[in-house]
Amino acid sequence: MSEAASASPLISPPTSPPVPHASSALLASLAPLLHEWLPRQRWFAGKGRPVDDFTLVSATELLPLTGSPGLLHLLVRAVQPAAPAQIPGVPPPADCYQLLLGVCRSLPPVLATALIGRVQEGPLAGYTVYEGLADPKVAALLLERLRVPGTLGSLRFDKDTDAHFTAGLVARPLDSEQSNSSLVYGNSYILKIFRRVHPGVNPDLELPLALGREGCARVPAPVAWFEGANPEDPTEPFTLGLLQPFLDGADDGWQLALKALATDADFTAEAYALGRATAEVHTTLAAALPTLTLGRPQAEALAAQMAERLEATVQAVPTLLPYAPGLRAAFDAVRELGGAGPVVTSQRVHGDLHLGQALRGPDGEWSVIDFEGEPAKPLTERRRPQPVVRDIAGMLRSFDYAARMHQPWNPEWAERCRAAFCEGYAAASGTDPRHQPVLLRAYETDKAVYEVLYEARHRPDWLPVPMAAVQRLATPLPPSDRP
């Protein structure tokens, strides 16, 4: 690891060691502002529950706080009361968030929408604090830090040894809703800043690195990344940011599907090609990383986890209650399947595959992005080998979602796309996922339950979409599809 970062004109070292202020005083001065600002952010996971307290994990001055602007990097835990489905007697988790706070005496009008507030007391009293990622100077600093690796305070910047990317690219933030924040540099690179972070390597870095080493062209290979030290376990740092090539001119699979529906256009050729691309990613992951066999103990554990998520969701969304027995039967079938011996090979998978995670380039080829998995699930679970039908189920649900967005509803469109996707997958992998009906149905059911909870909390108007799937999936499999 080089310390050459200090040679860059954009990366001048702080005038004092990183964050010389006492940690408790620093956090206390910011807490009143964070109490108001943090819960309003799209990526804040604890919506609906107050923030009782903050604890500081780390603080680093990326730019001196007396500068113009200063830049303060924080990892902060937000302590909240237990969620309704929290296990009794188990303390609620304190989610850790990454914040990049700009600090200045007077905020330029162009950054007015990024304002967090003015600090009233403590070491930053009299300073204005704002969302740093909205500031072009901050964006330029982050790119330069990644271009020239090095360490600063608790942060470590690294990159692919073969990567040589241009400095000084103009950045723009992505406006789309997401659980993280992203900056696009000159239509060449995209930097994802992970907001809710966990100890251990994020699969959105781990899996594209593994795929890149195997030469898989379906996933943009990481160019650079940065991590934060974990004071509780130095062997499990926090993955904080990831720079990858930006697929300029690529079309989002979700938007392509909606356009096809709006014009009554066929989408089966695109679905077939996307199935092939997904199979190529899965095949490469199986070659690059360890696999295991899902046997009876694993099948029983999987069924139990799915049933537990169902019960928690029923408590949170009572509308689901009449369908619970039928949905539970899909999970019981997995347990019974495990009793017959080895079930299927498990491997690393995408974990949250849907049309929005697929991009079709100008050449017509599909790429797969965003390997973080479902952010609401623990990192250990997201990094666990799983049957590939989990990803298949996610994409099948996505076709159904797209069809439901169109009025009148076009179920035949969804069914054709679902079939074409599976056929494309089978052509590239040699295995048709429809030949595993019990597992595929269980994963699709589990996904629909997840969607019900998500929509009930965030987009109640969309709740009928997963509820329509719930009604279908609560009906038992026909005898011909049972093992």
What would the keywords be for this entry?
18 strands, 37% helix, 483 residues, disordered N terminus, six-stranded antiparallel sheet, 12 helices, Aminoglycoside 3'-phosphotransferase, Chain: A, domain 2, alpha+beta, seven-stranded antiparallel sheet
Note poorly predicted spans.
Answer: 1-21
Average the pLDDT over all residues and give the rounded result.
89
For the largest beta sheet, what order do the strands appear in spatially? Answer: 6-7-12-13-10-9-8
Strand and helix order: HEEEEEHEEEEEEHEEEHHEHHEEEHHHHH
Measured on Cα atoms, how large is the radius of gyration?
Answer: 24 Å
Share of β-strand residues: 15-25%
Largest sheet: 7 strands, antiparallel
How many structural units, i.e. domains?
A: 2
- The end-to-end span amounts to 54 Å
User: How would you classify the helix and strand content by structural class?
Assistant: alpha+beta
How many helices? The count is 12
Helix content: 25-40%
The beta-strand count equals 18
